């Protein structure tokens, strides 16, 4: 049976860069962020449930008012939990369907799940690859990409599980501290190893 690989890491550690390269090399990449958007798209069952539990969160055009929902759950753990209980199973279903379709086509599967450890999703994959960068590189790439101050970048990074903890838990560590050439070399050898199994 094909192995299902969970790809994770910290914010701006390079997961998308890695996922794009693997996708170009024949892997089916299933993206948790895209699935999360599909779960609450206009007309979806997920959005219907949210609007019933959190009245007023639909825009006039039938889309989700993310700003309002964000402000409702921001400082309210209980409401955040309720939202997660609605959204998480739908996201998991969408990802499972995409995974099954890819496996049927005989494709190797990468599940790109940024918060895999934070959301305790280890059991949903066979193997976990962590894209790792040390804190100072992570911070400088995040500041540059999102145009953030140092303290804003610190706050975003520190809201997640520390990179070092993710690195220790990983089955495979992809070190993205160097340039893209060094990254792609590591990926080439992983692809080679993986496709020769
Ligand atoms: P997020 O968690 O926010 O989704 P991510 O983990 O998917 O981020 P990327 O978007 O792939 O991270 O990379 C973060 C930034 O760092 C991007 O601007 C990307 O172009 C840049 N980057 C990635 N890898 C390298 C590298 N090896 N050298 C230089 N820049 C890089």
From TrEMBL:
Recorded metabolic or biological pathway in which this protein acts: Cofactor biosynthesis; coenzyme A biosynthesis; CoA from (R)-pantothenate: step 5/5
Protein name: Dephospho-CoA kinase
Gene: coaE
Keyword Transferase: yes
Keywords: ATP-binding, Coenzyme A biosynthesis, Cytoplasm, Kinase, Nucleotide-binding, Transferase
Gene3D superfamilies cross-referenced by the UniProt entry: P-loop containing nucleotide triphosphate hydrolases
SUPFAM superfamilies according to UniProt: P-loop containing nucleoside triphosphate hydrolases
Function in brief: Catalyzes the phosphorylation of the 3'-hydroxyl group of dephosphocoenzyme A to form coenzyme A.
PANTHER family: BIFUNCTIONAL COENZYME A SYNTHASE-RELATED (PTHR10695:SF46), DEPHOSPHO-COA KINASE-RELATED (PTHR10695)
Residues engaged in binding ATP: 12-17
EC number: 2.7.1.24
Recorded GO MF terms: dephospho-CoA kinase activity
Entry similarity comment: Belongs to the CoaE family.
Reactions the enzyme catalyzes: 3'-dephospho-CoA + ATP = ADP + CoA + H(+)
Subcellular location(s) of the protein: Cytoplasm
InterPro entries with a match to the protein in the record: Depp_CoAkinase, P-loop_NTPase
Annotated Pfam families: CoaE
């Amino acid at each position: 049976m094909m192995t299902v690989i969970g790809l994770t890491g910290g914010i701006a550690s390079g997961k998308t860069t890695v996922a794009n390269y693997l996708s170009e090399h024949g892997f089916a990449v299933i993206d948790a962020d895209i699935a999360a958007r599909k779960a609450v798209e206009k007309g979806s069952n997920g959005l219907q449930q949210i609007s019933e539990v959190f009245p007023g969160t639909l825009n006039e055009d039938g889309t989700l008012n993310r700003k309002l929902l964000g402000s409702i759950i921001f400082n309210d753990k209980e409401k955040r939990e309720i939202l997660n209980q609605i959204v998480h199973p739908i996201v998991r279903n969408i990802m499972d369907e995409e995974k099954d379709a890819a496996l049927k086509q005989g494709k190797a599967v990468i599940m790109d799940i940024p918060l895999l450890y934070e959301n305790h999703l280890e059991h949903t994959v066979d193997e976990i690859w962590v894209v790792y960068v040390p804190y100072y590189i992570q911070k400088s790439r995040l500041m540059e990409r999102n145009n953030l101050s140092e303290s804003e970048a610190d706050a975003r990074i520190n809201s997640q599980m520390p990179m070092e903890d993710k690195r220790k838990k990983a089955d495979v560590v992809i070190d993205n501290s160097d340039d893209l050439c060094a990254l792609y070399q590591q990926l080439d050898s992983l692809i080679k190893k993986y496709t020769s199994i």
